[in-house]
Amino acid sequence: MPISEYPTLTAAADAFAAGEVSAVALTEACLARIAAHDAALNSVIRLDAELARERAASLDAARSRGEALGPLAGVPMMHKDMYYREGRVSTCGSQIRKNFVAPITATALSRLDEAGAIDCGTLNMAEFAQNATGHNAHFGDCRNPWNTDYCTGGSSSGSGAAVAAGFVYAALGSDTGGSIRLPATMCGITGLKPTQTRVPRTGVMPLSFSFDNVGPLVRSAKDAARLLKVIAGRDELDPTSAREPVPDYEAALTGDLRGSRIAVIETYFLEDADAPVMAAFEAALEVLRGRGAEVTRIALPMMRAINACTAMISRVESATIHANWMRDRPQDYATHLSARIYAGYGVPGPTYVAALSMRGPLLRAFVAEALSAYDLVVTPTLRTRVPTRAETDADADMANWGRMMAASANTRPFNYLGLPTVSVPCGFDDRGLPVGLQLAGRPFAEARILAAADAFQRDTEWHMRAPNLA
Predict the structure, then answer these.
(1) What's the rounded mean pLDDT across residues 34-50?
(2) What does DSSP say about strands 294-298 and 118-123: parallel, antiparallel, or unpaired?
(3) What separation in angstroms does the CA of 306 have from each of 26, 110, 182, 380?
(4) Within a domain: residue 1?
(5) Which domain holds residue 219?
(6) Which of 214, 350, 396, 428 could form a disulfide with 199 if both were Cys (CB 3.0 to 4.6 A apart)?
């Protein structure tokens, strides 16, 4: 942790607001930890140390003058290197955008600035946010702080590793098929994919128009609640952003799950799950029961159709976004990524439109069968134990392609459905790597899923465990 007395975002923000710690002290502790340990993890692409120090000093001065400061004032953060900040390079983890200078600042970053957060720079990621494991042929793989031989999860690999390692208190990621929740589960932290349209995507490099989401990777559900309150809400620059009112998510964290009904979907999500994952999952269900929730097992035969539609849409939309570069600069893509994008050009137009047109009916069917009688559904975030980087490196051997793609099997469906989903740590496997619990709810029910995640974390300490970087 940067400062052991303030191990979470909310603890650090509250301590700064109370005058217990300075923004400079929090920032210097984070910068020192990065300097000492990031060579082993490769989580940082650009470190803006002096800018962060200047920002921290200005916040300390503002506090001393008695100025009103935001709910995240004094808290050091870094973000996935696909969030644009005007005048600074945003690589998107790629060779193609290695020198791209952003013309605008992402709305999410502007809102964090207004809330008093300190931006320390940008974080490593999978190239153009397109793999579930965190491999990067251009900037090098980000490495898991629990064991550097293993995957961090992707595509928000640096965000997961940096928060788990205590380099920063929070990091924004993006989630198109699991790219927030997978780094959260593999690195042992909390990751939230909000309802699609809940957070504006202005100034964020797109991957799939239909599935992209902006969200946080943090230590706890309480941290996610506070940060989401800041970044959520309508943005006129993003016509797809929702006009739905933004509630006080933190106020919903009562710890009381009495009367809550939780469904375990046994079809699809539990198939071929590893024994250590299932052991941690079953133990997590007992914790939820202990908090007063009623847990019921159900079957949903529609899951395979949802998974098939998800793959078709994301590949076609990615191929559309990358069409010019794929024609003019195909050599600048990693092998596995160009293969994935090329596949999008082979999907017939009517098939793509059919997959899009099924989205509404399948969402209605899913809600009717899983979220009308139940408040939440829970699954393992990742069915298998955390894989090694070697066994999922498709550039080194295309035979690894299947293992790389399988990582997102349990997360992808919720992008197609557009539902809010959070991953929290729920144990460790027999190799000492984290296991994640995924909770999903109705559209715009972030408060409900965060309340359940927070209740779980009140009775467990998995989210507070930190890797021994020494």
Answers:
(1) 98
(2) unpaired
(3) 44, 35, 19, 18
(4) no
(5) 9-464
(6) 214
Question: Count of domains in the chain?
Answer: 1
Neighbours of 236 (CB within 10 A): 9
Q: Kindly state whether residue 454 falls inside one of the protein's structural domains.
A: yes
Q: Which of 211, 292, 238 lies closest to 455 in space, CA to CA? A: 292
**Residue 401 tokens, joined:** 């392609």
Distance CA(191)–CA(387), nearest Å, equals 19
CATH (domain of 207): 3.90.1300.10
Residue 295 and residue 338 in contact, taking contact as beta carbons nearer than 8 Å: no
27 close to 21: Cβ distance less than 8 angstroms: no
Half-sphere exposure of 112 (CA within 13 A, CB side): 30
Is residue 234 within 8 A of residue 266, CB to CB? The reply is no
- What is the per-residue pLDDT across 152-167, written as a single tens digit (0 to 9) for each? 999 999 999 999 999 9
Distance between CA atoms of residues 69 and 408, nearest Å: 39
- As a whole number of angstroms, the distance between CA 378 and CA 423 comes to 10
Find the catalytic residue in 179, 241, 314, 408. Answer: 179
469 in a domain, yes or no? no
What is the C-alpha to C-alpha distance for residues 366 and 413, in angstroms, rounded to an integer?
A: 11
Q: Is residue 3 part of a domain?
A: no
Question: d(Cα 80, Cα 116) in Å, to the nearest integer?
Answer: 19
Active site residue 80: yes
What six digits make up the tokens of 206?
A: 């797109």
The reported pLDDT for the residue numbered 399 is 87
The reported pTM is 0.98
Give me the amino acid identity at 415. Answer: N
Task: Check if 90 is active-site.
Answer: no
Place of tokens 């300190």: 118
Let me know if 372 is a catalytic residue.
no
pLDDT digits (tens, 9 = 90+) for 224-259: 999 999 999 999 999 999 999 999 999 999 999 999
Catalytic residue of the set 80, 193, 222, 229: 80
Q: Which of 22, 90, 94, 155 is catalytic?
A: 155
